[in-house]
Design a protein that fits this description.
The chain is α+β, with helices and mostly antiparallel strands. It has 8 helices and 20 strands. The chain has 4 domains: 3-60; 70-230, no CATH class; 232-302; 322-432, no CATH class.
Length: 433
C-alpha cells in the first residue's frame, strides 16, 4: 500500500466514525479533533517512517561502479594541474627537487643511501625480477659549484606509492565500501635511484646543480620525469552546522556539503576516530562518527571516469572497473558465487583488458608450473586462516595481447588478484603463453 492509499484509508475510517455519531455537537467536536490532531500526527509519523526507510535503503545500497579507480603515469612536462580527474598519487611529486649536499654526504658516510630521483623501469615483470636479483652498481656524476664528483648509485624498489594503495584499502574498509583491487602496474615498476658511495670530499655548503647517471645497458628501459597519477583528490572540508547526537548517545551525525565539487563523484572520509558509516545523498555527505565536535574533515574524492576527447596519454590509463550484466548484478546482490568455467571466463573478460592479455582456460594443480609469472596486487590483505602451502593452485592461462608487452604480466597479476578475492580456498596464479 502506498502512502496516498494509506492516508486515504485512514480518512475513510474517520469519515465512517463521524457518520456513526448522531449528536451534531459531538460530531463537530470529533471531526475537529481528528483533523487538527490525529490526522496530522498520523501523517507526521508516516513521513518519519518513510524518511527512516530511505536512510536504511541508502546505507544498504551500494553501486560498485561509483568507486572505480584509474591509475597511470604522465610526463612532468605535460602534466596539467587543472586536469578534470587526474591528480598525483604523491603530491610532493609536483614540487621542484632540492638536494641537501650536507645531508647527502653524511648519509652516505654513515652507510646509508640518498635518493636522487624516481624512474619508471619499462620492462617485463620477469626481466625486472632479474634486475632486482642482480642489484647492479651504476656510475654517475654530481656537478656542484665546486666541480664534479663521481658517485656510485643503485636502483631500489620504490614502495611509497604502494603504501598509498594500502592506505586507500584501509580507507575503503573504514567507510564500509567493499574493496576492489587497484589496477596499478606502473607502481610496481617505479624505482628510486640512490647514491651509495661518493668519491672525494665536496663542501657540504655547495649547491647541487646537475645529476648525470650512466644507466648503461638499462638505458633502454629507464624513463625519467614521470608522475604517477590516479583519479583521487584529497579535500579538506568543514562540516555544516554542529554535530547532531545519535540515539546511542555515543555517536554523532556530521553533514558536509560537496556541492562545489559535484554529486557525480564519490567521496570517502578519513578520521582518527571510529567512522560508523558515510552516506552520500546527492551533494551532501552524512558521516556517523564518534567525533563530537565540529571539525575539518579529510575527504577523498573519487572522480568520475569520463575522459575528454582531447585527452591523450603516452602511457595508457589502467582501470579496475568491469562491465556487469544483469545476471552478475543479481548474483552479487544475493551473494552467489561463481561456480562454472563459463562464469569465471565472463568475470575475467568483463574487465575489458583483452588488448593486453586474453583469457584462455584454467586448471587446478598441486603446484604452479615453472617460474611464477604473477604476484599479488593486494599484499596488505593477509589470510590468517588458510595456509598457502597447503592450498591447491588455481592456474589461469592467458594468451598475449597486442598492446604494451612490458605491462602484460602486471595486468595479468591484477586479474589473478581479482580472481583470488572470489576463490580464497585456492592460491591463484597466471601463466602467459
Amino acid at each position: 500500500m502506498t502512502r496516498t492509499d494509506s492516508v486515504e484509508a485512514v480518512k475513510e475510517m474517520i469519515q465512517n466514525e463521524i457518520q456513526s455519531i448522531d449528536a451534531l455537537t459531538e460530531r463537530t467536536v470529533f471531526k475537529e479533533l481528528m483533523e487538527g490532531v490525529f490526522l496530522n500526527l498520523y501523517e507526521t509519523n508516516l513521513q518519519m517512517y518513510e524518511a527512516l526507510e530511505r536512510r536504511v535503503q541508502d546505507e544498504l545500497g551500494y553501486d560498485q561502479s561509483r568507486y572505480r579507480v584509474k591509475t597511470g603515469v604522465i610526463e612532468r612536462a605535460y602534466y596539467d594541474e587543472s586536469h578534470h580527474f587526474l591528480s598525483p598519487i604523491e603530491e610532493t611529486d609536483l614540487e621542484e627537487k632540492h638536494y641537501d649536499m650536507g645531508e647527502l654526504i653524511q648519509t652516505v658516510k654513515d652507510g646509508g643511501t640518498y635518493p636522487l630521483m624516481k624512474v619508471l623501469l619499462c620492462c617485463d615483470y620477469l626481466e625486472l625480477q632479474k634486475l632486482w636479483e642482480k642489484n647492479p652498481v651504476l656510475q654517475g656524476v654530481l656537478r656542484t659549484e665546486g666541480g664534479e664528483w663521481a658517485v656510485e648509485v643503485q636502483l631500489q624498489r620504490n614502495t611509497a606509492y604502494l603504501k598509498k594503495i594500502e592506505e586507500l584499502y584501509h580507507l575503503f574498509i573504514k567507510n564500509g565500501v567493499p574493496w576492489q583491487t587497484v589496477n596499478a602496474p606502473y607502481l610496481y615498476k617505479m624505482a628510486d635511484v640512490v647514491v651509495t658511495k661518493i668519491q672525494g670530499e665536496p663542501d657540504k655548503t655547495e649547491k647541487l646543480q646537475e645529476v648525470s647517471i650512466q644507466f648503461g645497458e638499462y638505458s633502454r628501459i629507464v624513463q625519467k620525469e614521470l608522475i604517477p597519477v590516479w583519479n583521487i583528490q584529497k579535500l579538506v572540508l568543514d562540516g555544516i552546522g554542529f554535530p547532531t547526537p545519535c540515539e546511542d548517545h555515543v555517536s554523532y551525525e556530521h553533514n558536509i556539503s560537496v556541492h562545489e565539487y559535484g554529486s557525480e563523484h564519490s567521496y570517502l572520509a578519513e578520521d582518527s576516530q571510529n567512522i560508523q558509516s558515510v552516506i552520500q545523498t546527492k551533494d551532501r555527505l552524512r558521516i556517523i562518527s564518534a567525533a563530537g565536535e565540529a571539525k575539518k574533515w579529510d575527504i577523498y574524492m573519487l572522480r568520475s571516469l569520463k575522459e575528454h576527447r582531447i585527452d591523450r596519454f603516452t602511457y595508457p590509463l589502467m582501470p579496475n572497473g568491469r562491465a556487469e550484466s544483469f545476471a552478475e548484478k543479481y548474483q552479487r546482490k544475493w551473494n552467489q558465487n561463481i561456480r562454472t568455467r563459463t562464469e569465471l571466463a565472463h568475470f575475467i573478460r568483463g574487465f575489458g583488458l583483452e588488448e593486453y592479455v586474453c583469457y584462455q582456460d584454467c586448471e587446478i594443480k598441486e603446484r604452479f608450473p615453472g617460474v611464477r609469472e604473477t604476484y599479488s596486487m593486494n599484499p596488505f590483505i593477509e589470510d590468517e586462516v588458510r595456509v598457502s602451502s597447503a592450498q591447491m593452485k588455481l592456474v589461469l592461462h592467458f594468451r598475449k595481447g597486442v598492446k604494451e608487452p612490458w605491462l602484460q604480466r602486471d595486468i595479468l597479476s591484477f586479474l589473478t588478484s581479482e580472481v583470488q578475492r572470489i576463490y580464497p580456498e585456492y592460491e591463484c596464479g597466471g601463466v602467459l603463453s
